[in-house]
């Protein structure tokens, strides 16, 4: 078959446009492109198969087939571009052909454009060239414009692409073609507000389906897609038919995951996973509750923070402690003065995290110091009674940082000391000078210059 495909590529390259497009109907050319796309597809998997192997002979053969098929598609698009300028053919003949072949060719390019087990350097290069030529043939300036259209009134090719993907994005089929989830998750971010709302019914179900899988890689892909939807679909559309509640339920369940990459921002891509996705979704849910005049003792943000704090108290793994601590300030900012509902448990978390060094970068401690600053700023009327406990914890942390002989960089130590000093200044302000009074004896008895400098900053602040 490989020889037949190469011969077909040579035939298309040498063929006269009038013979090629005058003798073959758009439907026939569409079927040919679809057949070639199927020939180049990665080997099918069992529905409940384990992870995709990094490389094997079947995938290596698929990469070679894809490179050959991609060359045929390149010749075909080049002929279509040439046919546009011919008097006997022109745009009226070319347009229906393009409509038939653009969807399958796009899916082929998206399948092979990135490094995957079923690609190699040659197939990736062909896919990149093919996608660029496809966008040009459609008269567009970018992949996003190709998919969504040049303006809101113009329909792009996203509907056609999703129509082709739909049979492979069902509960019983999405795992059989290992490329399907990647094509969908690679394509979705190109369609943004205001276009995405037109396709909500097509993109939300597969995003939920992928995020609900037991494999962490799939969960991350699904959450990434859900976050893109939350950011790019109007709140009114998300709230209709309880869609926002469904998304919230799916994300909330992921908070029970013990895997740091899923809960945090995924380190290999600019996506924002569960906690930050929830932070963007929570205002939408709360607005819908207000509009429906639902009286609830706690808001969705309270429920999420309660669960996060419960996990934080018992968490011993440094990777997850860092994730939680980095995200916690955003929850405090989100709740504002309502953070007072959680002060008792939040105080326990802050004290516990200030006590433990978490490595050279000290991400957990820095995040907790930022959390404490936000908490003091928003809940200052409730802080004076907590001054003795917080002051003791901050001074102990300052001493630990000063005496640390480990691998912590000086810049990190300086950031920790500055963060602790800022917290002490805020505590002093909200307690009407109590911190200054308590620090007088410490300053006079302390002989360490670095610690004395932190105390001096607090005492001199007005």
Automatic annotation (TrEMBL):
Signal peptide: none annotated. GO terms for cellular component: cytosol; nucleus; TTT Hsp90 cochaperone complex. It holds the Pfam family Tti2. Belongs to the TTI2 family. This is TELO2-interacting protein 2.
